[in-house]
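Q: For a teaching session next week I want to show students how multiple molecules come together into a single three-dimensional assembly. I've collected the sequence lines for a complex. Could you give me the predicted structure tokens for the whole thing so I can convert them for display?
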Amino acid sequence: MMQIRLNVNGSPIAVSCEPGESLRSVLRRQGLFSVRYGSDTGETGAAAVLVDGRLVSADTLLAAQAEGHRVLTVESLDPGTAKLDPVQAAFVETGALQGGYSAGAMVLATKALLDANPNPSEEEIRDALSGVLDRETGYAKAVEAVRRAAVALRGEKPEPFEPPVLSPVTLAEARRGAPPAGPSAHAPLALPRIVPAGEAPRTTVVGAPEPKLESLRLVKGNAAFADDVEMRGMLTAALLSSPHAHARIVAIDDTRALALRGVHAVLHHFNTPHIRYASGGQSWPNPYPWDQVSFDDKVRFVGDRVAAVAAETAEIAEEACRLIDVTYEVLPAVLSAEEATRPGAPVIHDEPDSVGIYDASRNLSHHIEGQTVSNEELEAAFASADHVFTETFHVPKQQHVPIEPHVVVGFLDPDERLVLRSSTQVPFHLRRMVAPLVEREVKQVRIEKPRMGGGFGSKQEMVTDDVVGLLVLATRRPVRLVLDRAAEFTSTRTRHSQTLTFRTGVNDDGRLVAQDLTVLADTGAYGTHGFTVQSLTGARGLSSYNCPAKRYRCDVAYTNRPVAGAFRGYGAPQAFFALESHLDDIASAIGMDPIELRRRNWVRTGDKLDIVPRLGERGGVEEIAEEDLPVVTSCGTEQCVAEGMRAVEWKRREDPHWKRPPDRPNIRRGIGVALAMQGSGIPFVDMAACSMKMNDDGSFNMLAGAADLGTGADTVLAQIAAEVLGVRPDDILVLSGDTDVTPFDKGAYASSTTYISGMAAKKAAEAAAVRIRARAARLLQLGDADDVTLHDRRAWAPDGRSLGLEEIALNSLHTEDQEQIMGVASHWSPDSPAPYGAQFAEVEVDVGTGEVTVTRLVMAVDCGMPINPITASSQVEGGMLQSLGYAVSEELVFDEDGRPLNAEIGPYWIFRADDTPPMEVILVETMEESGPFGAKSIGEIPIDVVAPAVRNAVKDATGAAIDTIPLTPERVWRALDSLNC
Amino acid sequence: MVRGMARIATYARPSTLDEALTLFDSERSVVIGGGTTLARRPASSELAVVDLQQVGLGGISIDGDRARAGAMATLDELARAEGLPEAVREAARRELPSTLRAVATLGGLVAAASADSELLTVLLVHEALVSVAAHRVGTEEPLEAYLASSSRARMGIVTAVTFRISGHTAVARTARSRADRPIVAAAARVGPDGHRRLALCGVAPTPVLVDSAAEVEPQGDFRGSSEYRAALARILSSRVIEEVS
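A: Of course. Below is the structure for the complete assembly, covering every listed component.
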């Protein structure tokens, strides 16, 4: 240990630290929780601070290096309780905060920039933000926040920040090259463009760009996330993971590790319960296979769990892991689905006690089939087609890369119940799943979900919660486990890589007559989510377009690679890359405009989604009555396409000077399109609940089971309830995702929160409103409570008399016929109305090198009636950016022994503020009658189709039809080379 | 498999170069400028860190046709320095994101000799000389010779880099995205004497000065195969040569 003196936030402090301790670690020990862990290499910027006025990563800076310098964290900006500095206010106003995990760093980056340059250009702003990664937005709102902060600090008045409303354009007008919409042309791209629905009811709070309720805690860097807590006696956990892709654990000797001073527990296969489970956070009963145990006697991928240690410090825990002697019997590994399913391939799951594996001897976790006609009818349809096209596509293993990694803090409460403070999307599923693994009843476990810094599906998994639970019970001490970035890449979850083959029959007029989709998917070492993700691949791949004969077949194979699981889009991005590429190629082959081919087939309101009930968690039903098929109840596809064409200036595809700029002979330009749809929750399965309680001052506590993972869900639920109750959103105090306190919710997945949880919030608010109106009617001496209306925080009689909600609350709680005004409700749905979207991408391709530069993205989305257009557009921007990575850079790759080659942010590459293209979001409103105030989902659809839109743009630019993503420069170069041959 | 940061046993902040050289005289000692690459060192051995921040090796100055940057000059300072060639400033800016560029030093960059460093590639064509201090000896040698030395890590402490600021320089690069590190980059410069220099990165263990792209035999990796890197070397070289010719 060494003693150093630091100057932190203007105050001198003396601290003891290890010579190698990072400044981040020391600052967090001082309670400065705004300085957050994203990686040890400093690339995320979540731990950025100001050192002598320069923005510096506190991950890589040793605390000792900082001695003698002035260190500022965002906690130094102290404008007073519940007040904001102008920079902080700008971030709140623009909705630049999604998860907000790195909000403190963003604010400091802005301060540093504006102190040096009061009027920065956009390029300078993006450069200043380049060191702070945001996986949840497209940076557009952060750039706008910096710009508006600069304006405010210069003493100027910023323009109003309101989404522009567009006059709708027709598809025919867009085709003719309609000029860009007037008012939107000058509005910042951080603002979504709104195309209003004609039939929508008038609302006050719903539909308004309300700031996020949790903004203050985020921009001030207040303790809000799972890791932002200290407890007396807390231990730090570390995991020992497998260096082998496939090996049997013959013996473990933990003697040396246990002898190390400061080590409190070492857990592994030989001293823990052996209980099979599936780690996917899904509704009961968890889908098969149950092929995992907390610590197995076999490891199945590099990064698989071997042992866990709890110790006094992270350094001791890591040293103890090095001292665990493991004897492995190394087994031959299989590293691709094709290899795994060949006869004679090594069997990955040869254990006798796994439950529900489809065919372990062939390394198949699942086999999925669904079709709308018999095989004979399908082949007859193909035989009748004017053309039959077959193409095969390959999509990679993408990692979620949430900036906040998986974090669990476990402890025993005073009643010795196990409490897990976990960064989870599924607190209620997690409680049910973790209890048996720690050999406790469900009632003896509590899950608290604090603020989250992104999840994208990786936190729909129980990744480390069982380990922390076991360590807490073994040590009876609080235990913290924070996965490092390398473990986040390899030991959590990824998107399923797939090989997809589409065979499509199409007539000369462009009508689809038969579609057959065959998929081979790689689930990695365990089968979690293998069934439902791949079922969704079939449902999404075969639902966007009408076709009288459809079939889906899929094998899901185990491999000795990291585990695939839930990932935003959940099987759809894979399906749509294949489908939308395939349709573009078909259009080219039959000489038809790619949008016209789609238009002749896309589903419209009233059409049946016939493949959907034949797949998925309630699928497998052979005979389904026509009247039981789900119906498209609202669909804005055509308007989305028209708006997107206008915004992206589609007509330029026909301009040779634009496509081959004369002054840049190596460059070809192109524009691509791809269409998407998603669901809104899982019909018949997903349920959410909510309670509302009125307080003395007319405010309300909302207890919602829903898990806001940074999406803005808490704000959206509050807006829905506020609309019903006639109050402001900040009159609703939302507490969500605590299994002891809030009612049940299925969790944040399947694009379910706005549609399912939102309706639960609406119903709960309506139940409370019934009681408010009844009391108001009595106080206002009205005969019928239905005559009372609620708005402007008052209850109104038809004659104009009114009572404040505070008066009603005080009356109900203290004065007469006392009652707690409250409402409790739950909601499930037999429907899952799809949002629809049209994605456009503009690219430049260097035909010499194969380098693809995406120069513009436009997405028009029909999410029903957006509850909050700012949070909705943030979702779209973030989804597009993640999808852009899927298109051009993101792919986990492995060596011949199954070791990852790029389990680090730089080599893997996710987009930064300084290389993100301009993105435009258009919200095409439709009225979905089954949703809360007409809303459908928006969380997943934006991640679905950037990849095929970029691929189709590359094809438009160069003629190269590429079947594999990401479109790396070499891949494109080879495609261009083969084209020239 | 156990991960984790480098294990650092001691931290020292010498105030003179002699003191730093004395502390450096150990197999486990590692000199840091900004320390941004420490986390990437393996955790298997313990390190003795020698922090140069107080030795006085900072500063950027221009004397005639040569600029001199102290080893502790940060990449951000290089990117902002008035009077430096735009190619140098831009390559310094591109080398790292804002949070790391503010502390990463030129000396650290030179010592790390990363295969895909665009700034080193540009400095090669700007006839950079590296000053290295060792016990009782100070040497100055061309950057290309320093990079080619297999024992550079133990040669001594980089104290400064000088480079020419004149001439016409062109840079071309290919990457997965605009801000990504290059798979291959090429830089060419024609000096006032009309002499042309060409350098490449992404084609050898360190950036290299070449007469022609045909000289290189790159190793492949997941971002680019050997064949592709060789092709990029040819294409990008011809582009930058054409631009400066």
